[in-house]
Write a structure and sequence with these properties.
It comes from Microbispora tritici. The strands form 2 sheets. A 3-stranded antiparallel beta sheet has the order 3-4-5, covered by helices on one side. It is mostly helical.
């Protein structure tokens, strides 16, 4: 049993691990690539189904290109030496912030209520906040994973610096406003602090600050009307089925109508009628629920859980605090987005506008999620290299 911050991961015996390494086959690498490839294939089919019937639609082709670029980037990132990568972290972080600032200039465009996009023409657009996730992730891993001599966990200065580094992109994203993505950054930050082994008193302080923040927002009436309406719909789904609750209502109908086995791929009536808004992006899981049924939706979730489990495995096996914190941050990022996306489509959480990693349509999200997978593979590669060399010398 290996401890990962407040988490524990049961690892295979060292003898079996050395045997796999010496054979040149690493289970963690396969545990990343195979679920990611399966989820991508399912996602392409679901996007195809969700966009069929639209005259002149090229969304499936665009998604296929994004998936190809994403996997190429995943492979390239997996080959990077983490020690070399850390030297460029400040530059990557500043580039991420530059993209977020550019969105707030005339270069930015408003799509689906958020001023979070940059449009370059010919239908080419990207969301800088998706790439800022990876940049902030690397910056936090560098701060929390660079321990001084004699330190076993990050000190107060490192934790405060990490909070300050994360606060800048969170503030810029809140100005768009894109509160769902801002919440991803917050969860990612607190998760990485937890994985780094920071003292528990920090989390008591975070809880107190969070409670005080919620109370302050409530007392000062800072909640916007549409946000309050979403919370009311969550408490009573039938309160406004044709208004604010329309998305959630149609999503539940689509998922519920699929039953155990679903209606069959390309045979979903809700999907074909485009009753669910944004069903190829944020609500892609409704297509899986209607056309592939409970078993198909469960398969998507299990594939994601398999990928996340391997991420935890890699984090626990990393010989350096930097690798542990970096891999743990990737897991927090992907796990939280999956939890929120599936939860909101099933009416268990408010609508947050977060895509389902590796499945939803979207060039920026597609590429960034696979780059995150590449970071996990890079940590795994750094972990197993010494074992391979040692086994070769012993041979």
């Amino acid at each position: 049993m290996t401890t990962l911050g407040p988490l524990s991961v049961r690892l295979p015996p060292a003898r079996a691990t050395r045997r796999r390494a010496s054979a040149g086959v690493t289970l963690p690498a396969l545990g990343l690539v195979l679920p990611a490839a399966a989820l991508s294939a399912i996602g392409l089919l679901l996007v195809w189904s969700a966009t069929r019937g639209r005259p002149g639609s090229t969304l499936p082709e665009r998604q296929a290109i994004s998936v190809g670029i994403g996997f190429a980037l995943m492979w390239a990132v997996s080959r990077i030496d983490l020690r070399l990568l850390r030297a460029y972290v400040p530059l990557l972080y500043l580039l991420g912030l530059a993209g977020l600032v550019a969105v707030l200039t005339p270069l930015g465009r408003t799509i689906n209520g958020s001023h979070a996009w940059i449009v370059l023409g010919n239908g080419l657009q990207f969301q800088p906040s998706e790439f800022a996730k990876a940049a902030t992730l690397l910056a936090l891993a560098t701060i929390l994973g660079e321990l001084r001599d004699g330190e076993r966990r990050p000190g107060a200065g490192a934790v405060l610096l990490a909070l300050g580094v994360a606060a800048v992109p969170v503030g810029l994203i809140a100005l768009q406003p894109d509160h769902g993505t801002a919440l991803v950054f917050l969860v990612l930050t607190f998760g990485m602090i937890a994985v780094s082994g920071a003292p528990k008193r920090w989390f008591a302080a975070f809880a107190a600050a969070g409670a005080a923040g919620v109370l302050l927002v409530w007392r000062l009436d800072l909640i916007r009307p549409y946000q309050l309406q979403r919370l009311m719909v969550l408490a009573d789904p039938d309160a406004d089925p044709m208004g604010v609750g329309y998305n959630a209502t149609q999503a539940r109908i689509a998922i519920g109508s699929g039953g155990l086995l679903g209606k069959g791929l390309f045979h979903g009536e809700q999907t074909a009628g485009h009753f669910v808004p944004e069903q190829h992006t944020d609500f892609i899981f409704t297509v899986a629920g209607e056309e592939l049924g409970f078993l198909g939706g469960a398969c998507v979730i299990l594939l994601m859980l398999a990928l996340l489990w391997r991420g935890l495995w890699i984090a626990a096996r990393s010989p350096s605090p930097f690798g542990t914190v970096l891999a743990g941050g990737v897991v927090c990022w992907l796990a939280f987005q999956t939890f929120v996306n599936v939860g909101m489509t099933m009416g268990l959480l408010p609508i947050a506008g977060l895509p389902l990693p590796f499945v939803s349509y979207g060039g920026s999200a597609t590429i960034s999620s696979r780059a995150a997978g590449g970071l996990l593979a890079a940590v795994n590669r750094r972990t197993r290299t010494p074992r391979i060399r040692q086994s070769r010398r012993s041979a």
